[in-house]
Amino acid sequence: MQSLVRRFIHGVDAVNHRMGRVVMYGIFVLMAILLWSSISKTFFLPSLWTLEMAQFVMVGYYILGGPYSMQMGDHVRMDLLYGGWSDRKKAWVDLFTVLLLVFYLGVMLYGAISSTAYSLGYWKTEPLSYLLGVVTGSEEIGRLEQSSSAWRPYMWPVKVVMVVGLFLMLLQCLSEFCKDVLRLRGHKI
Asked: Which residues have a Cβ under 8 Å from the Cβ of 182 and sit 6 or more positions away?
């Protein structure tokens, strides 16, 4: 059982580490979009797509980089208290707070899946079965949701990024939970 848990931890950590290392270069994409926005507003006609595209890139950067940040321990903590605790006390507190985070991420993931199904043209009450049907080919995609801006991009790509990012964050939380359990049992990770 312990080897299965360790393989799960290493697999999730490897995926999120690679994803985080790739996504961290998204800041340069964001900078390029905002630079083009500034240049086009100054010297040419303003581009309609730049600010909304910058928002989409920022969503991807933030959502897909979150699991990497959690893995590296770079997320915000109350270090005034947490920093002085023993490793065992930290593991107990993390064990409890990760369970709360898993619940929160589960609710967020369900909402993101529902929103993604809506953006693909599904207006009924079972988004999970609809998306599985889209993947298997038994369901058709309806009228695709577009932004209400003048540029009017499709919304489904950024919503798919949200679903993937929240799923990876949920997996990373479960990995951290397993690490805390192993620490409390006295095992090295």
From this structure: 2, 5, 6, 189
Evaluate whether residue 113 is within a structural domain: yes
Indicate left, alpha or beta for 73 from its phi (over 0: left) and psi (-120 to 50: alpha): left
Residue 189: inside a domain, yes or no?
no
Domain extent for 39: 2-75+84-184
Long-range contacts of 43-48 (CB under 8 A, 24+ apart): 48/149, 48/150, 48/151
19 part of a folded domain? yes
Q: What pTM does this model have?
A: 0.88
Output the six-digit token pair for 77: 């903590």
3-55 tens-digit pLDDT = 899 999 999 999 999 999 999 999 999 999 999 999 998 898 888 899 899 99
Give buried/exposed letters for 108-139 (b at 16+ CB in 10 A, else e): bbeebbbbbbbbbbbeeeebeebbeebeeeeb
On whether the CB atoms of residues 30 and 60 are closer than 8 A, the answer is no
